[in-house]
Design a protein that fits this description.
The chain has seven helices and five strands, in the order H-H-H-H-E-H-H-E-E-E-E-H. By secondary structure, the protein is an alpha+beta fold.
């Protein structure tokens, strides 16, 4: 069973990890994007505490860091889930019901695109195309493309995750 970490402990850990990364960089503004990339690589996303540490380190306004993070779609503001769900909304998937698939995930997980469940089990997002058009509609689940994903298949995948979790907890 995993140890629960308090929010305060998590914030302290985030600051410590960010400071470790900052030691490898000079205090130049042009280091902002490489710093953000390294912090996200380590933490999986860019939490508020990390962005504040970065702004202070570089001597720039907090809003400048936030502006860069929200401008580039490579950066995440929410922690990733243990399981990543990406719903394709490319042309073929759109025509074959990609938005219906997205809505099924959204309703079952109670989150929208770009969000993570409160237990950090799942995160949900959309992609423009995954190159599996003949399998439309497609969802990429933990980096594995799943084809012909309709609402009943979403239910089946979530049931499989639930059974997997129960199996691990019973061991």
């Amino acid at each position: 069973m995993e140890k629960k970490v308090s929010i305060t402990e998590e914030k302290v850990k985030i600051k410590q990890e960010t400071r470790q990364i900052l030691k490898r960089f000079g205090r130049k503004r042009e280091n902002l994007i490489p710093i953000l990339q390294k912090v996200q690589d380590r933490l999986g996303y860019l939490p508020r505490e990390a962005m504040l540490e970065i702004a202070e380190f570089l001597g720039i306004p907090d809003i400048d860091v936030y502006s860069v993070v929200t401008f580039y779609n490579q950066f995440r503001l929410t922690p990733p889930g243990r399981h990543s769900i990406r719903v394709c909304l490319g042309t073929a998937c759109h025509m074959k019901g990609g938005y219906i698939t997205l809505d099924a995930w959204r309703r079952r997980l109670d989150i929208g695109p770009g969000e993570t469940t409160t237990d950090r089990e799942f995160d949900l997002d959309t992609v423009a195309c995954v190159g599996c058009c003949t399998m439309a509609p497609v969802a990429v689940v933990d980096d594995k493309p799943e084809g012909k994903v309709e609402p009943t298949k979403v239910d089946g995948m979530l049931l499989a995750f639930e059974r997997e979790r129960e199996k691990k907890e019973s061991q």
